[in-house]
Amino acid sequence: MDAVRVIVDEVAAETGISAADICSKDKTRLVLMARRTAMRRARSAGVSSVVIAAVIGCNGASVRKMMLRNQELQNIDLGSGADEMAELVRPFQRPSGRVSPLTLQDYASRAGLSAAAAKGALAKLIACGKVERAGRGTGVTIYDWCGA
To answer: In terms of CATH, what superfamily is 2-75?
Structure first.
């Protein structure tokens, strides 16, 4: 159980979402993403779904369902595979190797795509959990990289 608590604390520090929120019943998108990340890391560390459930505050079936959903997100067809994924991701990458959030127009410009094609590419990245929308309250939608 301590391993799961450490993982939840790490995810909380990385995402800015409190460990209490990650372990709550909150179903907002950002909390769910943080919860999925914590569950995925705990399972990758060899922790059973029952132990994860005890720490997260749900049941083992919920953890298994979340893991299946994670797998579905990972398996969404992005086209021709790794080469296309690299092209979709490239606009987010800086020369230093870090990634930066982008507007639709920035993404289109960096990718050399029309706005419509850029919107489609971003939709693929959102569907597989690699990118999320942020900053909608500001009047400008920002696309933020959250994938691996």
So the answer is: DnaA protein, C-terminal DNA-binding domain (1.10.1750.10)
Q: Per residue in 17-71, pLDDT tens?
A: 899 999 998 888 778 878 888 888 888 889 998 999 999 988 888 888 877 766 6
For the whole prediction, is pTM greater than 0.85? no
| Domain boundaries along the sequence of the chain | 2-75, 82-145
Quote the CA–CA distance of 139 and 36 in Å, as a whole number. Answer: 28
- Class of the CATH domain delimited by 82-145: mainly alpha
